[in-house]
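Can't paste images in this forum, so I'm doing it all in text. The chain is below; anyone willing to post the predicted structure tokens underneath?
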Amino acid sequence: MQSAHSQGLDLVEVSVDKDGIAICKFLDYGKIKYEATKKEKEIKKKLNIPKKKEVQLSPTIAAYDLQHKIRLIEKFLKDGNIVRLVVKFKGREKTHLDLGLSILKKTVEQVSSISKIDEKPKREMNTIFMVLSPK
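Text version of the structure:
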């Protein structure tokens, strides 16, 4: 241990013999740990894990705004992300769920060439949502 300390290295136990004799190496443990974390980060970068993106719509959305949202959805899908469409209802809009469903239907028709439906429209409290993923 003294010779490892004098060299500025760490004494790392590699294995233990059947007789109980420890086999050790002189290593710079901080450097090894740093390189291992660096390799893990590189592996994570190479994995293309799809991210979940959420696009919020309103039952009273204007035509231009809807086209803008559709362009956004197309961009997300082309990047390989999963898109969650959410229609939020406020106040008296809650009585017109059919408007929200029709907006979702229009949106899905526009992006049907590059997407598939993962979850059909579901209603939760004051929202209707559905999930799209790239083909």
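The beta strands are 10-16, 22-27, 52-57, 82-88, 115-124, 127-134. DSSP finds four helices and six strands in the chain.
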